[in-house]
Each structure stands twice: as C-alpha cells, then as structure tokens.
Design brief:
The structure is a single chain. This protein has helices at residues 23-28, 49-64, 77-85, 91-96, and strands at 17-18, 33-34. By secondary structure, it is mainly alpha-helical. The relative contact order is 0.13.
C-alpha cells in the first residue's frame, strides 16, 4: 500500500538582517533591519524619525564600518550637526573620515 503524500512546505530562508547598533531596536526586530531592502519609517513631527535615521547611520559607520548617506529637504547640515553634537555624535568628524 502506498503512503499518502504529505504536504511538505519548502524551507523558508531566514531574512538577512543589518544590525542597527541600537540594542532595543535590534532585539525587537530580531537582529536589525532587513538587509538590502528599503525600510520606511513613518510618523508625525517630533516622533524621532530623524534621530533613528542618524543613529542608524552613525552606529553603522562607527561599529560596523558601513558607509551611509543622510538626505534631508528640511534641515540644513549645520542644524543637523549642531543638534546631533548635543547627543554626542560628531557628524563633522565622521564626514571627514569618509
């Protein structure tokens, strides 16, 4: 007697993640943001989108040697540099270092 065929699901390959260097975020996302894919961060003014983006870029550069680009249509580079210096990020130093 032939055994009935079982529905076998193909093995799902885990999604590669790019660590953010932000401990809590890496924990709740299971290792970081999806690697090689866009991630859209939405929210109202003042909710932390810029801070999240900048911390992701700074930690990527300083902890993982990753390049990054920040593009803003609303804030000048001088404003960003000054704002993030107050949080301990030296954007001028990072930019000078490539």
């Amino acid at each position: 007697m032939a055994k009935p065929k079982r529905n076998v699901k193909p093995a799902v390959e885990p999604l590669q993640k790019s660590p953010t260097g932000i401990k809590g975020l890496d924990e709740i996302t299971g290792g970081g943001l999806p690697m090689g894919r866009p991630t859209l961060v939405c929210g109202g003014a003042g909710c932390g989108k810029t801070l999240l983006a900048m911390e992701f870029l700074v930690r990527g550069a300083t902890e993982y040697g990753e390049p990054g680009v920040y593009l803003s249509f609303e804030e000048k580079s001088e404003e960003l540099t000054k704002n993030f210096a107050s949080l301990g990020f030296d954007l001028n130093d990072l930019a000078a270092g490539g």
